[in-house]
């Protein structure tokens, strides 16, 4: 079973989630940003709207002039161009995805 985590080592929740996983593939998504297609696939697996995957409290969200009422395509493009806006961590396993908030939430898909 392949497990992948979109990880930010500076995030405590991301580090806590990583500690729960057995030898996952670690993707440092800030250095290796996911594409529009990858974000779209993640949203489908998470069964979420784009705004639900965004860190709307990030200063950059406001600096870019984004709002919670933006269309999905605009938000997905913003996440692809500015991965700091993506909620973290996201774990992928068994054709499913989960956000590690709380970290134990990812155990349901492993």
Features:
four-stranded mixed β-sheet, 32% helix, alpha+beta, 110 residues, single chain
Largest sheet strand order: 2-1-3-4
Low-confidence stretches: none
The radius of gyration over CA amounts to: 13 Å
Principal-axes shape call: globular
Class by alpha and beta content: alpha+beta
Write the H/E string, N to C.
EHEHHHEE
Number of beta strands: 4
Q: Number of helix segments?
A: 4
Approximately how much helix is present in the residues? 25-40%
Q: Summarize model confidence as the mean pLDDT.
A: 96
Could you explain the architecture of this structure?
With 110 residues, the chain is α+β, with helices and mostly antiparallel strands. Helix content is 32%, strand content 15%. It has helices at residues 12-20, 36-46, 59-63, 72-81; strands at residues 3-7, 25-28, 90-93, 96-99. It has a 4-stranded mixed beta sheet with strand order 2-1-3-4. Helix 1 (12-20) links the parallel strand 1 and strand 2. The model has no long low-confidence stretch (mean pLDDT 96).
Can you summarize this structure?
The chain has helices at residues 12-20, 36-46, 59-63, 72-81; strands spanning 3-7, 25-28, 90-93, 96-99.
Topology:
Layout: E1 3-7, H1 12-20, E2 25-28, H2 36-46, H3 59-63, H4 72-81, E3 90-93, E4 96-99
Parallel strand pairs: 1-2
Antiparallel strand pairs: 1-3, 3-4
């Amino acid at each position: 079973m392949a497990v992948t985590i979109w990880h930010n080592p500076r995030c405590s929740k991301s580090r806590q989630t990583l500690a729960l996983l057995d030898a996952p593939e670690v993707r440092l998504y800030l250095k290796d940003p996911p594409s529009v297609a990858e974000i779209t696939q993640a949203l489908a697996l998470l069964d979420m709207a784009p705004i639900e995957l965004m860190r709307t409290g990030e200063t950059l969200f406001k600096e870019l002039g984004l709002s919670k009422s933006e269309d999905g395509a605009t938000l997905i493009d913003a996440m692809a161009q500015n991965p700091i806006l993506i909620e973290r961590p996201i774990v992928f396993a068994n054709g499913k995805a989960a956000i590690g908030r709380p970290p134990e939430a990812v155990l349901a898909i492993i």
